[in-house]
Amino acid sequence: MLNVVFFTFNAFDENTYLIVNDKKQCWIVDPGMYHPEEVQEMVDYINSKQLQPQAIINTHAHLDHIFGVQAMMDKYNIGFGLHEKEKSVLQMGAASAVMFGFDFKEAPVPTFFIKEGEPLKLGDDTLDVWFTPGHSPGSISFYYAPGNWVISGDVLFSGSVGRTDLPGGSFETLVNSIRTHLFTLPGNTQVLSGHGPATHIDQEKKYNPFLK
User: Fold this and answer.
1) Is 127 exposed, middle or buried (0-12, 13-18, 19+ CB in 10 A)?
2) CATH architecture, domain 3-211
3) Residue 6 CB-half CA count within 13 A
4) Rounded CA gap, 194 and 188, in Å?
């Protein structure tokens, strides 16, 4: 069984997730630790629970979701994966950092690519990968049916949706991704977003003003 732990990091209040199995193996999702003390918070938690990081898997590559990638790669000697269509966004990381006033000299280099429709395996557990572009060209969501949750990155939020005014964004594409993928999930599926509180599919179908 896969369980999820979340942390909130950096000036953008980005949600970083750990997906953990019963053998204490884990994936690090969207590591957004910017300050050294944020990196230490993650390391301390992993150590305290005796977890064994297996890989970094990202929903997308916007700056606030990749700040901590290199630190985790170096610390645990693990790979970093995301959708191949996020390469252009990832490569803009350093330039984006300058625009926002952050010290971020070089974007991490992915060691593998995650493909839609090809489930990820953590021990005996399987995580489904859905291609949900719109916020960025290669956004993906991670769905775990036995746990009744989906990590949506910045695609769907509680009462909102991801911005689409950044390079590669498209509101029409984003809404289509939500309606054809996320909104096909059971209504009580918990949505774990890249920012803000968790929500549920039924809640967003009924009340999200961007999806009426």
Assistant:
1) buried
2) 4-Layer Sandwich (3.60)
3) 15
4) 19
CA distance 152 to 64: 15
Residue 47 amino acid letter:
N
**Span 69-114, pLDDT tens digits:** 999 999 999 999 999 999 999 988 777 866 778 888 789 999 999 9
Q: What is the pTM of this model?
A: 0.96
Q: What residues have CB less than 8 Å from 7, skipping those under 6 apart?
A: 15, 16, 17, 18, 41, 42, 45
C-alpha neighbours within 13 Å on the C-beta side of residue 28? 30
Terminal-residue alpha carbon distance, the chain: 35
**Nearest alpha-carbon partner for 19 in 48, 44, 66, 53:** 53
Tell how far CA 20 is from the center of its chain: 15
Of residues 37, 75, 61, 34, the one with CA closest to residue 133: 61
